[in-house]
Amino acid sequence: MTPVLSGLVMFAIFAFFATRGLDQGYRAATAFLPFGAAAVAIVGGMSVLVFSASFLMLLGLWTIKSLSGRDAAIRFEFTSLLVIALCIYALLITMIGPRLFMGEIMVFSMDRNVVGYRLRWDVFSGLSPLVPTTGNISQLAYFLVTFAVFLMSLSLARKSGPELIHKALVGAAIVNIVLAAIDLAGGGAILSIVQTATYSYLTDIQMLGVQRVTGGFPEASSFGGFTAVLAGYFIRMWFSTRNVATGILGGGNLIFGMLSLSSTFIVVAAGMSLVLAAQFTLYLLRGNGVSAQSKPFVLFLILCGSSVALAMVATPAGVVALDFLDHLIFSKTDSVSGFERGKWAMRGLEIGVESYGLGIGLGSTRSNGILSVWISNFGLIGTLLFLWIYKNLLFARASSFANPEYKKYFTAAGVALTALIIGGLTTATTPDPGLHFALLAALSVAARKPVVVVYSAKQPRYV
Q1: Handedness of CA 103, 107, 108, 110 (dihedral sign)
Q2: What are all long-range contacts of 116-122, with beta carbons under 8 Å and residues at least 24 apart?
Q3: 0.85 exceeded by the pTM?
Q4: Distance of CA 431 to the CA centre of its chain
Q5: Distance of CA 95 to the CA centre of its chain
Q6: Pairing of strands 106-108, 117-118
Q7: What are the φ and ψ backbone dihedral angles of 46, each rounded to 5 degrees?
Q8: Are 271 and 420 in contact (CB under 8 A)?
Q9: What is the pLDDT along the chain (463 residues), one digit of tens a residue?
Q10: Phi, psi at residue 128, to the nearest 5°?
């Protein structure tokens, strides 16, 4: 193991806040999420990222504290039970699937040492017979940690209120904007101090002569996807609160996301715009008028939209914009990467059929797109569980909120989770939805009344 000095310093900062309480440690760990390439140590060529190490330590502290009470009780909410069921199935199919179908199913192995049948001379990945690999263990570990963080986040939010997760996301949004601003200002040398993970870095890439912003991430795509989620959350929160600081966080992440020139960000931003427009339209169809407070905002949007449309038609800006869209989206399917990802997606769906709907386990094959990943890794059972979880996260009755004020957290988290889904439909290659999913999912559940079964040392009871 090779420790990394900058990562150790960051981890020490987290540890300082963690000693002041789980809530403080939670907010500190979340603030490190924008440091997507900061490693605390290199183990066997693999990077242990600072935010991963922070959340792992936090999970340990939370577990010890949860089990150290005189009458230690475990609270199971319905969504938590679905998550636990999904994790149990993921564990079982990952242990059984690669051995049950070993040598019978052709996969795009995640093990770089495997030499398979290459579909084209310029495509790196190739098809090879399914065998158990270390990828099964690592992908399962990532997946289980993500959902353990969800359970921890929900537990902390039930005690401190959903404001805890919101404040943690505020810290992450601020850090993300600061890192992006440093990158935009040409501070690549400064960011290199914390970009220590063993990744392939594409931080100096230009597109049509424009420098792409990558912030604390190794490349623009991952930065764009992460930033789009934050932008969606805070823009939707601003709609509900009209808080200036919230609007700045949403707008700042939106601007820097656009400057990443990431196709992922463009697709997610377009999808979120449709979701927000649909929500506003539904609001009007229910007989609600536009309040006096909202009229200036609506007029501002109309003015901006008209100005952009005029600029596209009357100036060369339209041609430039079309060139960018062609490079970022329309020509993607003709690229080597587009060809490769298309084959991954198709093969993932085929694996779901060839495994009789069971799946072949996490880390067994490379896929592309949420549905292909779910079907190939989890099969039909895991896919249905995932859909059930998302249904519980995105939909709720008006009477289910613990406090009417908490609805703003639910709706904002719903938009951000929708952004994750939209991005995952085209970019997801592994089943782990990521730690930002864990936070947003917990926030969505914490905004509503808890209906749980509590198992204690005395007797189970319903709350």
Answers
A1: negative
A2: 119/340, 119/343, 120/336, 120/339, 122/336
A3: yes
A4: 11
A5: 26
A6: unpaired
A7: -100, 145
A8: no
A9: 788 899 999 999 999 999 999 999 999 999 999 999 899 988 877 788 999 999 999 999 999 888 776 545 556 788 999 999 999 999 999 999 999 999 899 888 877 666 667 676 566 777 889 899 888 998 999 999 999 999 999 999 999 999 999 999 999 999 999 999 999 888 888 898 988 888 777 767 666 566 788 888 988 888 988 999 999 999 989 888 888 899 899 989 999 988 888 878 888 887 887 887 777 777 677 666 555 555 665 665 566 656 656 655 665 545 555 555 555 555 555 566 777 778 888 888 999 999 999 999 998 988 888 899 999 999 999 999 999 999 999 988 877 887 888 999 999 999 999 989 988 887 888 889 999 999 999 999 999 988 665 555 454 444 4
A10: -145, 160
Query: Hey, CA dihedral for 177, 182, 188, 190, is it positive or negative?
Result: negative
Q: What tokens appear for 33 in the block?
A: 């999420």
**Which residues on adjacent β-strands are paired with residue 128?**
107
Nearest to 30 by CA among 212, 221, 198, 226: 226
* Contact of 368 with 348, CB cutoff 8 Å: yes
Token couple for 32:
């490190």
Cβ 414 vs Cβ 444: under 8 Å: yes
Residue 235: what residue type? I
Q: Would you tell me how many other CB atoms lie within 10 Å of the CB of residue 59?
A: 16
Residue corresponding to tokens 């690999």:
133
